[in-house]
Amino acid sequence: MLGYIAHGIANPMARFWLATSEQSWRHLPTPSDPPLVHAPGSDSDRVLLLGSGIAVGYGVMSHDLALGGYLARELSAITRRGASVDIVGRSDLSPASTRAILSGLDLSRFDALVLTLGGLESLTLMPQAQWRRQMRGLLEEVHSVAPASLAVFVVETGAPLLAGLPALVGRLVWRAMGRINAATAELCAEFDNTTFVAFAPVQGDVSTLTGRNTYQGWAELIAPAVARVLDEEVRTRHPDTVDEAQRQHALDALDVDSLPNDELEQIVANARDLFGAAGAAVTLIDHDLQRTKAAIGMSTSPIPRAVSICDLTIRRAGLLVVEDTMTDPRFANSPWSDGAHGRFYAGYPVESPDGQRIGALCVVDTAPRHFSDTDAALLRQLALRVQSALWGNRVSR
Fold it and tell me: Taking every pair of C-alpha atoms in the chain, what is the biggest distance, in angstroms?
């Protein structure tokens, strides 16, 4: 009861302080550019950074210089892959309001969700029981709407700016934050594929955020735990072996024939134009056939799976590139060997919500060509869009 009384008193006082104090980070500028940053590299990891506090980007004018930008670069430096980070950062986000935001997000586009919450709740001395209820509701919501493959990270509520508070208030906030973090760590242990990320930054005040190295230091604390899980997911979630019965069951369950083709046709048109290729297609490996769901510049007729390059694509976890089918020994005795169907192929597997590779997004060309790391990252992003279109409202755990 005392905790709820303290919260009732602290809540309006904290909000008044945030609105009026010179030490309040709410008075600092925030990024005005689009909330998406990218660190170049092949097979990019897609990350959604969602939260309040450190996710907002107080003190800088660009997300590239805020936590999202540095997180992308730190992840890429560790994994040796590309990294794209979408940012949804708002000063007033709570676990309850974050649940509402989730309804408008397509979590199937991402490999990882990084949540940074709890700063305002610590400042207002929210009781641990109340925080636990709200966070449990949020995590249950995340796991009900996200694909099973999504890695969820909840960053420990840190205290980088407590030095700007009066000493007594700082001590009370610190204790409240400790109780919140203890509850969060326990909750993360209850949910599959959910990691509690330790975050213990050096304390400072609002002047701390005027230096560009601040966000880099914070990203360096968070990125290793995220990269470690993503590396493990790359190795284990998408093995090169294929369980054909499970794969076919996943394709059947999606009932893709009932879905409209408009969005997929737009994606393949974009793919052909972006790569300057002769054609592009979304294909499905269905029993002994390769079926085409959408195509431009390519035939839509079914072909035997035995002569399908896309069948080779779904047998591996990532990109398949054939720079010249006429010189590649894998196609010596196939219809591709004379170049009549095209001499260049690049394909990225398309997955069901449970990680089964059911088809591919591919581009073909009439002449041999090279496919760069940047090209590979772009094709993967388009393949994720295909997945989102195919999954529709069928994502379940």
Answer: 80
Contact present, 382 and 267 (Cβ < 8 Å): yes
32: helix, strand or coil? coil
Q: What is the pTM of this model?
A: 0.65
Cβ distance 320 to 345 under 8 Å? yes
Record the tokens describing residue 393, joined without a space. 């409202």
pLDDT band for position 68 (cuts 50, 70, 90): very high
* Model confidence at 348: pLDDT above 50: yes
Band of residue 235 on the pLDDT scale cut at 50, 70, 90? low
Give the residue range(s) of CATH 3.40.50.1110 domains in the chain. Answer: 2-236
- Direct distance between the N- and C-terminal alpha carbons of the chain, in angstroms, rounded to an integer: 38
CATH number of 244-391, picked from 3.30.450.40, 3.40.50.300, 3.40.50.1100, 3.40.30.10: 3.30.450.40
Q: How far apart are CA 336 and CA 343, in angstroms?
A: 7
- DSSP codes of every residue in 159-170: -TTGGGS-HHHH
Note the CATH number of domain 2-236. 3.40.50.1110
Residue carrying the six token digits 């799976």: 305
From CA 53, how far away is CA 380, in angstroms rounded? 31
- Four-residue CA torsion sign, 251, 257, 262, 268: positive
Specify the amino acid at residue 79.
T
